[in-house]
Amino acid sequence: MRTERVLTFAVCGFANLGSLGVAFGVLSIMAPSRTTDLANIGFSALIAGCVANYLTACTVGEHYHGTIIRARNFRSLT
């Protein structure tokens, strides 16, 4: 269960080529004069997205204790 949660956060983020293409397309329409600047930072943005996804996955892995709090049991904990 812990592995599933960590992998979900590690894989399902914005650090993929499709998201980079969408962001590049939208930003190049909004600022056509800055297209070369966007192309220059594209790979760095992809790496930063990977790092952010993996840090989130690490945080989930550290804070997951194997218990799931259900809504009906939440009142008894407070």
TrEMBL record:
This is Concentrative nucleoside transporter C-terminal domain-containing protein. Pfam families: Nucleos_tra2_C. The chain crosses the membrane at residues 7-29, 41-60. The keyword 4Fe-4S does not apply. InterPro entries: C_nuclsd_transpt, CNT_C_dom. Residues 2-61 form the Concentrative nucleoside transporter C-terminal domain. GO terms for cellular component: plasma membrane.
